[in-house]
Write a structure and sequence with these properties.
211 residues, alpha/beta, Spore Coat Polysaccharide Biosynthesis Protein SpsA, Chain A, 7-stranded mixed beta sheet
């Protein structure tokens, strides 16, 4: 097992079931197309990081809404795939993090696909920071977080959090500090969750008009 383990959370881009908060602006097909593009962008970023780092890094895609075969046909066979657990986002994050540490990983980093501002350099900064800090958080402009990095599993970081609200980052940060840990904070970046967030999309993202 690699010392470094990067977990990517995404879902199969089925129209009407993904990026639903963007459907009013993009339509079901456009929202699904954006989900597809964001996922492919994030996976490519992770692949580029793995190619650039000197330390072996395992990448596992945690998926929902599709099958392993569908995910492999879509994103390729260079990654591991695991179905997301049931429950709310906290339950699913907790399960994936516990699984990764159970595999023998020493540094576990979790990202979604909603933040196109995540770069290979930012991932390298995260894993390097975990040499000196027990936790790394990447705050999102909407009050959530786009990245979490840990050197040990703690279920408290995923429990009693108001998921989907602007309090997620602050509540998680409070729990980390209450545990006696000193977190490293990455720069704040925008997630693409709501129609007003579309202004932050890179120009390389196209064909997301309403369909």
């Amino acid at each position: 097992m690699a010392e470094q383990h990067l977990l990517i959370f995404t879902r199969w881009p089925e129209p009407g079931k993904t990026k639903t908060r963007l459907i009013p602006a993009l339509g079901p097909g456009g929202a699904a197309k954006l989900q597809q593009q964001l996922t492919e962008h994030t996976v490519q970023t992770a692949h580029n990081f793995r190619c650039q780092t000197d330390v072996r890094c395992q990448i596992t895609v945690f998926y929902t809404g599709g099958t392993r075969q569908q995910m492999e046909q879509w994103l390729g066979t260079n990654f591991c795939y695991q179905p997301q657990a049931t429950g709310n986002l906290g339950d699913r994050l907790q399960q994936s993090c516990q699984w990764a540490f159970g595999q023998g990983s020493q540094k576990v980093v979790i990202i979604g696909i909603d933040c196109p501002g995540v770069t290979p350099e930012l991932l390298q900064t995260t894993f390097t920071a975990l040499d000196s800090y027990p936790a790394v958080l990447g705050p999102a402009l909407d009050g959530g977080y786009y990245l979490m990095g840990l050197t040990k599993f703690n279920p408290a970081y995923f429990q009693q959090i108001d998921w989907g609200t602007e309090r997620v980052y602050q509540q998680t940060l409070t729990k980390i500090v209450q545990n006696g840990d000193r977190p490293y904070n990455l720069p704040a970046l925008p997630d693409i969750d709501h129609p007003t967030d579309l202004q932050y999309l890179p120009t390389t993202f196209t064909n997301t008009a309403p369909t």
